[in-house]
Amino acid sequence: MLRNALNIATLGFSALQSGAVGTSGSTSAVVSCSLARMRDLLDRSFAEVRLQAGIQKRKHVSVAALIEDVAVGAAIEASHRGIKFTVTSVADEAIIHADPDILLSALSNLIQNAFKFTISSGHVWLKTHTTVDRVLIEIEDECGGLPPGEIEHLFRLFEQRGADRTGLGLGLAIRRRGVEDSGGAIRVRDLAGKGCVFTVDLPRPKA
After folding, report:
1. Please, is 162 exposed, middle or buried when counting C-beta atoms within 10 Å of its C-beta (0-12, 13-18, 19+)?
2. Residue 125 and residue 28: Cα distance in Å, rounded?
3. What residues have CB less than 8 Å from 207, skipping those under 6 apart?
4. Is 7 exposed, middle or buried (0-12, 13-18, 19+ CB in 10 A)?
5. CA-CA distances (angstroms) from residue 126 to 82, 122, 155?
6. What is the pLDDT of residue 22?
7. Which domains can be identified in the chain, with CATH numbers?
8. Is the N or C terminus of the chain more exposed, i.e. has fewer CB atoms within 10 Å?
9. Torsion angle of alpha carbons 160, 185, 72, 118, nearest 10°?
10. What is the rounded CA–CA span in Å between residue 158 and residue 136?
11. Residues 79, 26: contact at Cβ < 8 Å?
């Protein structure tokens, strides 16, 4: 998959360099999508290796900055897929203690899955709520909802849903472990007939 994405990006870039296509057309969008896919594959691989090796670099992280980092790449992919993507504001003072790279990878993967399974021209929301001791980051999609009993299946290694099978099927299980190692949890709520809400629940550091 990484080699395929690299080949597509290389061919597209060559076409752009030659002047045969414009920088704002479909070729440019394909290059952007391929680069995003390579980034996601590398993020996933690095996160898995670090988790298996027990390597964590936790520090105080601004939730607002984290969401901004996630949203930049997600907005590009949403545009390419023709999906509306809405990000709610985050309180500037919201802080968590976690490994930012692993958490960024987890959120990116959840958003990518939301895009993958959302209906054509659908809507994905990235919402953040804070309480005195928790930060709740929600990714809501319009996948149409889940069949009864399917929620836990989403986190089983190698399992994939839907017709788009471009992922390795490991993403959700790896991301769940990464969030849990930061003292948090991932929960799923089914919106019957509409979609799903994935919640990343993280503790705020004590003063």
Report:
1. exposed
2. 25
3. none
4. exposed
5. 17, 14, 20
6. 64
7. 58-203 (3.30.565.10)
8. C
9. 40
10. 27
11. no
CA–chain centroid gap for 181, Å, is 18
Query: Tokens at residue 146, please?
Result: 């889940």
Q: Both tokens of residue 32?
A: 């952007």
Look up residue 137 and give its two tokens. Answer: 């980051």
Q: Cα(86)–Cα(101) distance, rounded to whole angstroms?
A: 23
Under 8 Å between Cβ of 164 and 171: no
Per the model's pLDDT, the better-predicted residue between 43 and 124 turns out to be: 124
Return the higher-pLDDT residue of 163 and 59: 59
Place 168 in a pLDDT band, splitting at 50, 70 and 90: very low
Residues 6+ apart with CB under 8 A from 36: 73, 76, 77
For residue 194, the 8-state DSSP code is T
Where is average pLDDT lowest: 30-39, 42-51, 57-66?
42-51
Query: How many residues are given for the chain?
Result: 207
Assigned token pair, 44 = 């996933």
Compute the distance between CA of residue 173 and CA of residue 176 in angstroms, rounded to an integer: 5
